[in-house]
Amino acid sequence: MAPPAAALSSLSNALATVEQLSSSSSSIDGVAPDLEASIRFAGAQLTQAAGILLRLSQDIIAQAIVTFTRFWAGPEGGSLRIYSVKDVSAAALYMTAKLSFEPTSPRSVLNVYALLLSKEASPLWFVNPRRQDPTDKPAPAPETYYLSEGDYQTQRQVLFRIESVILRTLGFNTHVVLPHTVALTYLQTLGVSTPALANRVFEHLNAGLLSPQLLYLTHQPNALAVAAIYLAAREVNVKLVDSEWWEVFDVDREQLGFLVVGMKSMEGFARAEKVKWETRTVPLVVEDVDAEIERRRMMEEGG
Amino acid sequence: MSAPSKSRWIDDDDPETQAAIERQKREKEARKRAKAERQRRAEEEETARTREAAAEKQPYGTVNGENGPPTKRRRLSGEPSADGSATGPQKRPGEGGAPAGQRSLLRFPGPEWGPCRHVDNFERLNHIEEGSYGWVSRAKDITTGEIVALKKLKMDNSPDGFPVTGLREIQTLLESRHTNIVYLREVVMGNKMDDVFLVMDFLEHDLKTLLDDMREPFLPSEIKTLLSQIVSGLDFLHSHWIMHRDLKTSNLLLNNRGEVKIADFGMARYYGDPPPKLTQLVVTLWYRAPELLLGAEKYGPEIDMWSIGCIFGELLTKEPLLQGKNEVDQVSKIFALTGPPTSQTWPSFRSLPNAKSLRLPASSIAASSAPEGKPPLLPRSKFPFLTNAGLQLLSALLALNPTARPSALDCLTHPYFREDPRPKAKEMFPTFPSKAGMERRRRRETPEAPKRGQEAPPLDFAGVFGGAPGGDTGETGAGFTLRLG
């Protein structure tokens, strides 16, 4: 017997419609799909890094990344030529933390983003490509990532404004269910809950947050959990039951196949991105996006 | 309405009358259009239903039969898989494909998200009330003609961006899809960045106004109908880890079909196990549980059960049960009703922050005569028309010790709801003239819900039993005159 739909809301997410997947506000504004994917990938990583520095737990960070990703989807979503990725990332993280059991202050959030976006001090490869091994270099001067009081006041206003923009764009739907806990339950059900396997499952689930295929916007948590377990079990050499166990968790073979391919391709995608932006920075503010589009146009005309 | 008051022989030429008639005509037409729209929608639904019913009746073999392609509709779980191939093209990525063989997989609901609509899609009809967290008015959806309640969130220039209370209210309401919880249809926005409105189903009454206007309290069977609905709504909330934290009769809405719905989630929030850090200043004073008044830093859904006890009492007598003037007076009123706490009835109360200044009368230690494990019964004289089972339930809800209070689920299975008189069927529930629509309400005497961000005031409970701090003159305490009488 199928339980009533309302009872499943704690296990399911809102999914993107076909229209929201096939076009986006950014592409309408002339951002090439590959550039959009690169920027979104960098923005999601920025959110993840900021969450770690703010000592937020991974479930809050992951929810923030899903909210961040939803914001850009669809022709009625946010456009990269109107909203800066760094602002949306900060506001999504701040808002998700506010609703959680571990709220954080605007000042902490903005301090962390000042560091992560500093061209000299940032540990992120897409912000600071000249970054070498931090051990054989003197530490960057604190002035390069210091947030002055005046900057703090302006950026705080931006943070609050973008928070409202996100809420309006998503129709105030802040509900995000994650597959992580679901996956642990499934591992126990399958009788294979070893730390090594569980670790690998979580790695796939966390990497999936950054997927250019927007896996968290197209699939329910149970399907993500099953795919991560399937893939991780093969990699860690854990034997699962012979039968079609995924059907017990309401995932069919086709869906499983799609997700496994998607999750497996993450590593290659990430490596390619790193090579692609080896010497340059990924544009994280509107002006840089405009400049990048202009640069590409010139290249095309020149070549 | 000026035209009918004039004599019908008077010349209709004067422009004012003409204008009035014109206006009436226009209004009438607008009403007619709205009705036609409703009618059309009903018809559409009807045809959709018959079409679906027809599709249901099709035998499995007719996929390519004389009926042409089968009707397109969303696949539901548990259907026979014979038409699996036919529904292939409408499959969405999140929904997966046709199940292999006879297995049927659970399909999750896949709601969508989209930007907020503008508040101009609604026509404001009249003001209903101003609560502590926003202004509520009655409005009409211009496209569908439906009547809704529109609540504007107060933004109070919060230093933390979008007020967390408003966010929680929306988040918890969106999650709470239950017949006994008010239905949040959508969130719409105004022109300014901080104009945010909640669009909710409109209900004709709230219990507080209704009780104020009634000559006699509800019948016992009606009280059971109301209470069981309230508690099942609350059970849904608690089973989804949501605490309401401001249950009171003015936040319980009633429609003319006998349905009660819990509203105003301005204080609601998620809780967890172990409980997160929570603010102590919650729940309107008259409905506030003793552990909150005594400054407990950790509390749980039991505080909602206390409020339910207060509401139960109010339904029985038509008057709020415990009308304290301030925190100290509230504690004193509570102890006057329940008797003071003892180390048997509430072992941990001494360790609560505000209990240190509380001086219990010496005689109270011996006064406890309750059976082990059960909270003492409340004085019978206060509720003369209540059955024994009813009194037991009320006493359990108003147990001083939070761990002794029943959960919402316990309440629903209580014998009180199964003994005669049985709960009245919702359809048989009396109807009342609705005040919510037509006139501005008089100001409530109920104290307001505590404001967010206020500090819990430092309280000195030395005077709860009338004695001056340090004095042991407990016998003058209000609690004991009641117990003796």
Automatic annotation (TrEMBL), chain A:
SUPFAM superfamilies: Cyclin-like
One GO molecular-function entry: cyclin-dependent protein serine/threonine kinase regulator activity
One annotated GO biological process: regulation of transcription by RNA polymerase II
Name of this protein: Cyclin-like domain-containing protein
Organism (species): Penicilliopsis zonata CBS 506.65
Organism lineage: Eukaryota, Fungi, Dikarya, Ascomycota, Pezizomycotina
Automatic annotation (TrEMBL), chain B:
GO BP annotation list: regulation of mitotic cell cycle
Pfam family, one: Pkinase
GO CC terms in record: nucleus
Biased composition (Basic and acidic residues): 22-55, 445-454
InterPro entries: CDK, Kinase-like_dom_sf, Prot_kinase_dom, Ser/Thr_kinase_AS
SMART domains: S_TKc (SM00220)
Entry GO MF terms: ATP binding; cyclin-dependent protein serine/threonine kinase activity
Reactions accelerated catalytically: L-seryl-[protein] + ATP = O-phospho-L-seryl-[protein] + ADP + H(+); L-threonyl-[protein] + ATP = O-phospho-L-threonyl-[protein] + ADP + H(+)
Assigned keywords, A-Z: ATP-binding, Kinase, Nucleotide-binding, Serine/threonine-protein kinase, Transferase
Catalytic EC class: transferase
Region (Disordered): 1-110, 422-485
Entry similarity comment: Belongs to the protein kinase superfamily. CMGC Ser/Thr protein kinase family. CDC2/CDKX subfamily.
Protein name: cyclin-dependent kinase
Organism (species): Penicilliopsis zonata CBS 506.65
Record lineage: Eukaryota, Fungi, Dikarya, Ascomycota, Pezizomycotina
